[in-house]
Specification:
Helices cover about 35% and strands about 15% of the residues. The protein is built from ten helices and 13 strands. This is Cytochrome bc1 complex Rieske iron-sulfur subunit.
Length: about 350
């Protein structure tokens, strides 16, 4: 093996053996000796208070930018519609909402990380510490030492002294989770009071769902079942499925003397009653009608309603009767609604009160 002495590439004084033990004898004894730690060199922030203040302001600025970016994230979510696109070079056409959310959230998270790194590299203590290996279990002395090290680390972090950094860091960490909270809005549209209202209103004609023709009383015979929808609700339109899921009604003509419920009789016209087709259990369409008993059956879970007695539940898991639509006849002889349903249609929900 050739000697390294005199090598033009590696000066003798920089070799591990030279630094740790000094000279050829040390290298001969242990050619892979521990070179030890280089001498500690103070940073400019350690000796110049103005430089330390600049670093503190830099870290605080990064945390503040993070706060503003999080606010921008929330504002972008509110401002930009989901279908708005913008041209951004070199990305081309891109969703304004996705771009703004990605940029603001990325900046918020980056600034928190960059601020923490800059704080650690310029203001926290950078003295090297050697941790000796020890058994896994901790004795009392080790626990005491850990607590002491923690206290020392907290002191050296200058968290108590650098109040500007501390306050802006806490602000950034407190605000950035709001980004996730705002995203919960995408779990679905807020129902508001939409579940309490349908497309029915006073004066709207009852239209045969199969023929799209307005209904007259003579179109409905005793024992027949006719499916109806509100006037103006056309199949194929954007809102049809959402509206018909609440506004679909069934018309049945009973003998007035067979109607047991007074309100049902008052809200009918010559024995023609209009009830919601939406089962109050899980929202299936109620379509099976038994003429002799005046019962209608939901085919999904066999909830059964008595149309001669306020559509009350006589069997099955449904929680309440089918809502009735109050009807009358206009001056042209067509059946029309006298308003919306008096209660929400479909399955129960806790806000019904």
């Amino acid at each position: 093996m050739s000697s390294h002495t005199g090598s033009p590439d590696v000066p003798d004084e920089n070799l591990p053996g030279e630094r740790a033990h000094g000279g050829e004898a040390a290298r001969a004894e242990n050619p892979f000796a521990d070179p030890g730690l280089p001498p500690h060199e103070p940073r400019v922030q350690d000796i110049d208070d103005r430089a330390a203040k600049r670093s503190e302001r830099t870290v605080a600025l990064l945390f503040t930018v993070s706060i503003l970016a999080t606010i921008g994230f929330i504002a972008s979510y509110v401002i930009f519609p989901i279908d708005q696109y913008v041209f951004i070079w070199p990305l081309g056409e891109i969703s304004a909402l996705n771009f703004s959310l990605g940029m603001t959230l990325g900046i918020a998270l980056f600034c928190i990380g960059a601020g923490a790194v800059h704080w650690a590299r310029t203001l926290m203590s950078d003295h090297e510490l050697i941790g000796e290996r020890h058994p896994i279990e901790a004795d009392e002395e080790t626990r005491t030492q850990v607590l002491a090290d923690f206290a020392q680390g907290a002191k050296e972090s200058q968290l108590g002294r650098r109040k500007l950094i501390r306050n802006t860091m806490f602000g950034a960490l407190a605000v950035v989770p709001l980004s996730g909270v705002v995203l919960l809005r995408d779990l679905g549209p807020l129902p508001e009071d939409k579940l309490r209202h349908t497309a029915w209103e006073k004066g709207k004609l009852l239209v045969n769902q199969n023929t799209d023709e307005p209904l007259r009383p003579e179109d409905i015979t005793v024992g027949s079942l006719v499916m109806a929808k509100p006037q103006g609700l056309e199949e194929g339109t954007h809102e049809f499925m959402a509206e018909i899921a609440k506004a679909a009604v069934m018309l049945v003509r009973l003998e007035p003397k067979d109607i047991k419920d007074k309100q049902e009789l008052d809200w009918s016209h010559e024995g023609i009653v209009a009830y919601s087709r939406i089962c109050t259990h899980v929202g299936c369409p109620v379509t099976l009608y038994e003429q002799q008993t005046h019962h209608v059956l939901c085919p999904c879970h066999q909830s059964t309603f008595d149309l001669a007695d306020g559509a009350r539940v006589i069997f099955g898991p449904a929680g309440h009767p089918l809502p009735q639509l109050r009807i009358s006849v206009n001056e042209d002889g067509y059946l029309e609604a006298q308003g919306d349903f008096a209660e929400p249609v479909g399955p129960s929900f806790w806000e019904r009160g």
